[in-house]
Amino acid sequence: MATAMRLSSAVRNASMARSAAAWKVGTVSGARFYSAKSATLKETFAAQIPGQIEKIKKLKKEHGSKVIGEVTLDQAYGGARGIKSLVWEGSVLDSEEGIRFRGKTIPDCQELLPKGPGGNEPLPEGLFWLLLTGEVPTEQQVRELSAEWAARSAVPKFVEELLDRCPNTLHPMAQFSLAVTALEHESSFAKAYAKGIHKSQYWEHTFEDSMDLIAKLPTIAARIYRNVYHDGKVAETQKDKDYSYNLANQLGFAENGDFVELMRLYLTIHSDHEGGNVSAHATHLVGSALSSPMLSLAAGLNGLAGPLHGLANQEVLGWLTQMKEAIGNDLSDASIKDYLWSTLKAGRVVPGYGHAVLRKTDPRYVSQREFAQKHLPDDPMFKLVSQVYKIAPGVLTEHGKTKNPWPNVDAHSGVLLQYYGLTQQNFYTVLFGVSRALGVLPQLIIDRAVGSPIERPKSLDTLSYAKLVGAKL
């Protein structure tokens, strides 16, 4: 068996080498392009693996004993906040600058990544390619990836029936997680592992599962939406359209081109936000035990469903709606300020403001604000959001209990969705989940490719910590 695997690997490597020789490789703005044949995403990533493994080995061998941080007792009891202990290649979050995807800001991505037909927003297919490989794909490569996802989009009949049998009162996120878990039945990784495969092949089956899973998410999300809120009918995936168009179309909103553009932006900016947030970390943690991408993503989705994470965007819209009912058309500074103070004095937080890491306005918020200024400048709810953005930081600073008085991504996304008629707030986190899959699954593929170990940090009880710091309890 080992001989057969070595032969298979040798044949695969030789094939890749022959293919690479047939390509004329060049660069444009740091992105590789191929004039004769376009490299697929899988081929591009496969070619990077040996170099990445050697890079990690060298780093660990030469610097593995160096201290990279220290942990305080507050951090141990405060949710491990700020402890440097995870490896996440796709993005890094700076407290002042915001998120960078493989070193590129959101404006960079909006400029460099291929756009949808006739549009200005980046296609999330391009971001997925960037997160997995670190390279900006060509337009041709992105178009081919769109086509591949469309070709893989069919959802098994039993999963459709499972969703159709769910009561409308079951939260859409619970249904979403249920469907993703059920796709375990189709897992290439789980089947291959059960048969016995070499660990060097783990990433390939993880890649195939991730591609299949991502491809099916729009149809699953749309089926939940159409079942719960409409007639249960879901349009077929259009094989010649991009991922965001198909999602918008299956939800029932593709006739509005601006909504399709919003989906392209939404899916791109919500995809990844470092590895320490609950949905990313949960996916990574469960994946580190060699669970399939389906089970790993389902764990992440269950974390995303929490009100302190992805559910926050619907809470923001609910709070804004209540404010609008209370103050009516009076959007004066004084009126907004009074309502903000009434929220704080009632012991509530101002939803959509503050962030565990950021100490400035979230660049994802800014990108959505710019979209609104272009497409819906006169919308009453957008005007309200703008006024809150003007007043809230000062009130929160005066209040003194918020480290970051600036808005995060959740402060804006719901207002955009409701403007185009997607008013069902319980569904918003499902859209977030579709997007988050695009960010967490590339890292799972990378983890399997470089042989990342199972995650197992050390825990202590309170008495042990007290002894460690010389305290008497």
UniProtKB/TrEMBL annotation:
GO terms for biological process: carbohydrate metabolic process; citrate metabolic process; tricarboxylic acid cycle. GO terms for cellular component: mitochondrial matrix. One of its GO terms (molecular function) is citrate synthase activity. The active site is at residues 309, 355, 410. PANTHER family: CITRATE SYNTHASE, CITRATE SYNTHASE, MITOCHONDRIAL. It comes from the Eukaryota. Keywords: Transferase, Transit peptide. It comes from Eremomyces bilateralis CBS 781.70. NCBIfam families: cit_synth_euk, PRK09569.1. This is Citrate synthase. It catalyses: oxaloacetate + acetyl-CoA + H2O = citrate + CoA + H(+); propanoyl-CoA + oxaloacetate + H2O = (2S,3S)-2-methylcitrate + CoA + H(+). Belongs to the citrate synthase family.
